[in-house]
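Input/output pair, single chain:
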Amino acid sequence: MADGILLILTSISILNADALANSAGIEMHDNAPKTYRSCCKEGIVQHVLPTLKQHSTYRSTAEALKSTSEWKTDYDIDTMRGIFKRSLTDGRVMMTQHFTERTLTPGGDISMQCAATADRPPQFIWQRDGLTVSTSTDPRYSLGQVMRADGTVLAQLNISRVRVEDGGLYSCIAKEGDHVAVHENRLDIYGPPYIRALPAIKVQSGETVNLRCPYYGYPISKIDWEFKGNTISSDNLFQNRYKRSQHKKKKIRRSVTNIHGILNIPEVNKEENEASYTCIVTSPSGEMARRTFDIQVIEAPVLEDLLFGNNLQEGQIVNIYCNVRSGDLPIHFEWLKDGKRIPSSLKVVERSSELFSALVIKRVALEHCGTYTCVATNHVATVNKTTELYIKVAPKWLEEPANSSLLLGRRGAVSCSASGYPKPQAHWMKKDAILGTWQPVLELAGGGILSLANGTLVIDEVSLSDEGLYSCNIENGVGTPLSKTIWISVNKPVHFASPSSNVTSRLGQSASIECNALGDHPVTIQWIRHGHTMDLHSHRWKLSELKTNSGLSSKINIQYAEATDGGLYQCRASNPFGASTYNIYVTILEPPTPPSELRVESAQSRSATISWRPNDRVAAYQYTIQYALAHTGDIRWELGSTFNISSKDNEVRQTFDLQNLRPASAYAVRVATVNQVAVSRFTEPVHLTTQEEPPSSPPQHIRVSQTDEPGGLHVLWGAPDALSHNGHITGYHIKAVPQNLGPKETDTRIIKVSHQNGRQETTLSGLLKNTRYAVSISAFNSAGSGPFSSPVFQETREGAPESAPSSVECTAISSTSLRVGWQPINTPRHGTEIAGYIILYSTEDTDWQNQTSLHTEQYIQNLLKYTNYTIKVAGFSSYGAGPFSYPIVCTTLQDVPSPPADIKVLVLSPTSLLISWKPPDRPNGEVIYYTVYVKPVGGSGEAVMTQKVEANRNTAEVKDLSTGRTYEAWVCASTHVGEGRASKRLTQTPTHRVVAGVSSLGGTVSVGAGSSLLLRCACVGSPAARTVWYHNHNIITHHPRFTRNHDDTLLINNIDESLSGNYTCLAKNLYGSDSVKYTVIVQPLPDSPILRATPYKDSILVEWEQPHYPTMNRSSIQKISYSLTWKEANGPWQEAWAHNELPNLSNSQKHTLSGLKCGTKYSVRITATNKVGTSQPAYMDVNTLGSVPIPPSSNEWLWSNSTHVYIQLAGWEDGGCDIRSWDVEYRTLGSRLWTRARNTLVHTSWNMPLYQAPSYRSSSFAISDLLPGTWYQVRITASNEAGSVSSIYNYATKNLDGSEVGPPSEMFDLNMFVIIFSSVLLLVCLVCCVYILLKRQRNGNFTQYRDSITIDNKSESGNITTNNSHGNLAAKENALNAQNRIYSTPIPVRNNSKHELYEISPYAQFAVGFRTFGHIDNQDPPSKMKHIYVFTETSFQMCSECEDSDTVSKYSVSGSKCSRETCRTPHHR
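Output:
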């Protein structure tokens, strides 16, 4: 096809403009270029893509367009723009930026840009005269596209060193799926005209064709079209290209061209228009280019109606013919069935020729019925014809009914279905047992019976009258109807009239237990006790059974009852149709014994609850309780109270509430058992103490006075009356309420003060300044606070007030958004201009997040569903944030929950299933219940069984199921919003063999180190399953950390990382096994943060990294808080922020310590805290920037006259810290006494104490009243925060005549003479001392050598001794070295390395035992050894740690010592 030609279809109605654009993949909009606008004025739509004729909907669209009326030539352009805009909006692609028409000279560069936006980022295609442009078109072409921040995509086409052939009509096409937006404009390059070549153009007969001449070159004066040697029209483009011409509708059809060189041929046909057309382009200079284009007019195919036979029967031969009436060849045929290709499984044969096509079905069947479509396609159009094929099919059995047996009282169903066309109808009949006639079952049943559409007969509750002969009849009017007679029998499963009964007998008397089983024979009864079948061959037991019409009666007689005969007896009856169990509770009465395990469950201020365990062997019907005061050792029971209460049946522990007790009092309680036989003795008394109540009166003698600091009050008071304490007074609440605030302001302050011996007093600080307060006090104990006293009024001293926003409230907008509102801060009183507000919010496990608002409300979006958020608000100004409001908790709204995390289906019995599940991972609200769904697998039309389960349960038992039938089960969770998505679906089949199963669901469990963990293992199975616990594939037996409970749960105490890993509970019985697996992750203490510090002049930026978590131990991200403290050298530690304040507003882990001294050493310490605990602190020493002042090296900054010396202080560098003070002293050269100078320059600020002047660099200092012609020494001391420095300069005043004085070396200096003489004398003394020391050392070495020879001789003669002098010397030397070394804090050992082998440091010391030659075995070691080295694995490690510690960090902490003789105790981290 001719890709370069743009087809233009006329005669398009306004209603079909969108259909044409959508079918061709075109988008239009308001920013259409002038080519769009001119075409719209002429009533045509240009810019149909070159592939329009190949589009699947082209032909149907074109036919629809032909049936509409033409647009008028004077159609309103604004109406067209509205149509284009609507089409673009529907298509979701909008062009937001486009290039304009450009004219360039060759050799320049050009960049054309387009931008578009859509639901997803669109892709761009560039075309020139209809041909796609890419980087392979020419190396000078460069294409690219980029995503902007606002979501739009910008595409760019760059052409470097443009040429004449680069000219033409450029199109920018933005595509996103099936939606397209197009923009085009011309690029003209100065040069001779030329026309690009295009292949032949195929057009459907009767359509309108527009030919655009693909020329380039500039300028162009006119464009002509020739047809068969004749010029069609000629327009002078050079003069009229920018003029708008009015066109009137032509009644005569003829070819015309417009100002853009487009040739319009309306309603083409073969006779007139199938020929060659020539485009001639002429420039103003007379240069000409011409190109011929061929047009081929093709007739669209026309089909006749599809033909086939009537009254078709199954198995006949069917031929469907599709004939072509007219149309140009070649024509391609295609057949469709129901809109899709005919599948090969239907065995349909297609036979085609040039002018027809036929379908042959040799044996027609029901599956051949449907809609058949014949599609014919040639080069220009696609047409189709459709017909429907139906045949009649006699009914055939799909599910033939059979004799059935239904259970009495249960739901029953019998299937009966058949296939055929038309769809067969099923009718059930029942034969009347009395009359012998057949009647419809719906008339006989009287309700409770239903015939489903698929033919299934359903009886809701089977009764005895439902038994009999039934007939299922099926017909559809074709062939012979189907009929089948069956017998439905009703069987009665075994059951009991009541589920249980109680039998009571006295010790030594006879007793009998009996059960009557009802149901069809044969019925068998089995007696069970303690889970085992009873052995009834004892001489005390006698079993008798009696068969009745309704079932079987079984009775056990006990001749004389023993205490062990009491308990639960189970009568299990069964027949072929079911089984049931009857429970009999036997009680043997005997003289009672006291209850056991008497204890106090709870104690309140005026009541208490006690409980005890009844004696299992004695059936008590009453208990006697006594209680009395026990303040002293002797308990007077006769003054106490006695109560008799009845026994509560089926209670494991009996409870009783003691009332009308005294607060904070001690009581003794005892209990006795009463039954029909006697009263037991009392138990040993248990003691309890009632709780305290809040005091009932306020404190007394309250006095309030002002403090010296603003915003403070001093309060004194006395304790309340002693009779109203109601317990031990532990402290007081002091409430201070401001009185002179506005009606909407409040700043009530309540503080807690501990109780003191003697006078009670405290100081309230941080109150509003210059405010009258009402102070009242209440006492409290462990139970609460008593009433407040009458207020005492006092005013605070005047100061600058500050407050937080008030009335902070929060409203849930949706499940993911909150609205926070508050009252503005009253700024006139505080004198602060509020710039905005900071809103901090966080969940329990996440870090604080912040938002800012300029108003008194803020909408917080993208929150977690149904989650508690803690919110607090603070105002901020240009100087920083103020105090935060009291935190409030707000909860987002609920939503439907996620599906249960896991589900498990187990066989509980032959007729029941046990379904267990895990709660949803995201409840998204309060789960109110779970819905369990169970339905049979394979059954059609059977109802789904549902069961609602309380939210606190995670198991459900589904009963009354059919043995051997497969069921599908799933679970859904529901909140108040609605039901969530279903869990995964599992299938299970109830069988007689109940395989051991574990209903508990495992998974990953995270627990903090040092806590306890309970792992569950709930089991089912018959016989009962036996369980075994494994830890990492090792059987758990006896371990001090593990406790195996009776319910198969496993309790892990004081868990650490060694106990992490996989825990598996394996349950097993005779028929199989099952298991549950837990992955336990132990969360360790956080590691010490890694500190980094950036010092500044008066501040330090402290940064730290998140503590390290090993991958294996990090199951979730925990919220971590930090504590940062700092101190100046030799100063106290200070908190960087309070515990209830936030150090920063982001997660950047940094904080600035401000207000520090310049050039000063500081120590920084930080710890990390999470739910598990607090890490070891990390230390760092940092110096702020700056140093002491730097004096000039010479006296060039001094000058003088005869009586003054002037000092220019600009010569002193401040060292980075501002100089705070100066001190200038002077003396005559050679004297000893310094004189402090006073500045005499009145225009400077040197009249401050110690000569403090902030603008020192522009000041001078003058020393006055000096002697003329005299040498002086001037000592200048400059001080800043980093320290002070003194420098001495020699300078002389001038003579009276202004002449200079000679150098000071010409004069004799007595002081210098004394210094030189003293130095020489000191040097002589030092040389003498060195000589004496050398002499003594030489004599000592000779003596030592002589002594060693003597000792060796003694050793050889048998006097063996051990000389440890060298060892002691080395030990002393090592200890001395250890004391003189400075250690930095070592890197903390990872928590998960606790049980790893210690690595021996290369610098560790070892104590190696050895024996010298000549040593006598079993000889005692010398008793004078001062140090005994005992090295263990731990001591080696700790010594190694000491040796390596000074290589850990360049920031050291002085004072830490680790001696080689005594290593410190290991610190397990």
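Residues 1310-1356 form the longest helix (47 residues). The mean pLDDT is 77.
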